[in-house]
Amino acid sequence: MKHLRLFEYVDAVVKAGSIRRAAESLYITPSALDRRIQQIEEELGTQIFERHAKGMRLTAAGEIFLDYVRRHIADLDRVRSEIEGLKGLRQGHVSLVASQALAMDFLPHQIRAFRQRHPGVSFTVRIADRGEALKTLMAFEAELAIVVFPKMSSEMLQLIMIAQPVIALMSNRHPLASRDSVRLSECLNYPLVLPDASLGVRELLEPMLVRRTNKAQITAETNSFELMRGLLQDHQSIGFQIGISSTRAFEENTIVSLPIDRRDVPTVPLICAQLRGRTLSVAAARFADQLTHCLDEMDLAR
User: Fold this and answer.
1) Which of 40, 100, 128, 138 is in Cβ range 3.0-4.6 Å of 132 for a Cys bridge?
2) Listing from the earlier edge strand, what are the strands of the sheet with 121-127?
3) Which residues contact 13 (CB under 8 A, 6 or more apart)?
4) Residue 236 above 60 pLDDT?
5) CA torsion through residues 103, 205, 151, 197, sign
6) In terms of residue numbers, what domain contains 13?
7) pLDDT averaged over every residue in the chain
8) Is the pLDDT assigned to residue 187 strictly greater than 50?
9) Are 148 and 106 in a shared domain?
10) Domain total for the chain?
11) Which residue range or ranges hold the HTH lysR-type domain (predicted)?
12) For helices 19-26 and 30-44, what crossing angle results, to 10°?
């Protein structure tokens, strides 16, 4: 499988952007790595990289070859996983990309539950915005995506979609904190800490905020929910997330969540998806089954 090692060299150079940095990650010398890349180019009869003072950049031919490389690496990972699956899934690996809103409670709980049954399976989880999530799937850098308000494409195969309510976050000492739910108009009476444009919740809220520009008091915009929760400690500000991100940890950290009346803000789609045409590894397929089952139960419980 020497050719697969060469594929890994190409992939490493693309990710690192230079021969030197890629060589460091591969634990070989830069000169040896450069010779391997030149060997591939000689066999293909064309350059796959443009060499610049600041690093390496793929040519048009290189883009085509990189897609071929990543498909073969993914196929090998799947074959290895299927072989392990014959042994009862004692080993395996799951790579996924997810929205930040799922990082605090939902995904950690799902991964812990899966590893209790399959302790030999490891995970790579990339937290990304909804546009980057699709790119990550298409680059074969993740097998699964679980994303809020995703940018859909014909390349993405939807495994399940559920609707999630938008919630208001605030300090447990906020004047509205004792309410069972709130209206958006009530939230606008207080300083707002908004998700930035890279997050799906902001796209949903934007039309409502535009109609109330004169009333909204926007004090901060951020792509970090951790920062948002920190800014809410002034006991006056209000932030926004989706329902699946509302966890017991909020209460432990003195932050509470309240549903927003659905007459004011519609629900947000949350999907679990894979790249169309890609066969998942055994471990990823089983984890996808667990995710879809859990999400389906959540949807039925609403």
Assistant:
1) 128
2) 121-127, 92-98, 144-148, 268-275, 156-164
3) 19, 22, 33, 37, 49, 56
4) yes
5) negative
6) 2-63
7) 84
8) yes
9) yes
10) 3
11) 1-59
12) 110
